[in-house]
Amino acid sequence: QVQLVESGGGLVQAGGSLTLSCAASERTFTMGWFRQAPGKEREFVASISRGGNTDYSNSVKGRFTISRDNAKNTLYLQMSSLKPEDTAVYYCAAKRNLGSPKFDYWGQGTQVTVSS
Predict the structure, then answer these.
(1) CA pair distance 104, 52, nearest whole angstrom
(2) In this model, does residue 7 exceed pLDDT 90?
(3) What is the largest CA-CA distance in the chain?
(4) Are 51 and 67 in contact (CB under 8 A)?
(5) Which residues, 6+ apart, have CB-to-CB distance to 92 below 8 Å?
(6) What average pLDDT score do residues 86-112 get?
(7) Please, are residues 104 and 32 in contact by the beta-carbon 8 Å criterion?
(8) What Rg, from alpha-carbon coordinates, does the chain have?
(9) Fewer CB within 10 Å of terminal CB in the chain, N or C?
(10) Are 51 and 66 in contact (CB under 8 A)?
(11) What whole-number distance in Å separates Cα of residue 1 and Cα of residue 20?
């Protein structure tokens, strides 16, 4: 069972920046970030394959950057030009295998609050 531990959340003013980290207990394949705002469903933010191929939701494209350090089993999300609507609990996720159709492992989440 892979353990995922997020860190880096906090309170930031609109227009500011924040970087999230996610430490995995062992090697994983595709990893991603999701978020859930109060009263809303969890939504996809970004993902990155082990080889570095990335995908972003339209709502964060151009503002967020996902990256990973395979040697450290760590995932990052650099967030800039933050908006109040980015406020949510951000979750790290990982796939067990290369061909996994879904994300198998999830972190406990880290709160990001953007004030206007």
Answers:
(1) 19
(2) yes
(3) 41
(4) no
(5) 4, 6, 20, 22, 31, 32, 33, 75, 106, 107
(6) 94
(7) no
(8) 13
(9) N
(10) no
(11) 22
Distance of CA 105 to the CA centre of its chain: 13
Q: How far apart are CA 21 and CA 45, in angstroms?
A: 14
Tokens of 28: 């994983």
User: What would the two tokens of residue 30 be?
Assistant: 């595709």
Q: How far is CA 105 from CA 24, 53, 96, in A?
A: 10, 19, 7
Query: Alpha-carbon distance 17 to 80, whole Å?
Result: 4
Encoded tokens for 8? 């880096």
- Percent with pLDDT over 70 in the chain: 100
Instruction: Please report the DSSP string for 47-109 in residue order.
Output: EE-TT--EEE-TTTTTTEEEEEETTTTEEEEEE-S--GGG-EEEEEEE-SSTT-SS--EE---
- CB-CB neighbours of 98 under 10 Å: 9
Joined together, the tokens standing for residue 57 give 């939701």
User: Per-residue pLDDT for 101 more than 90?
Assistant: no
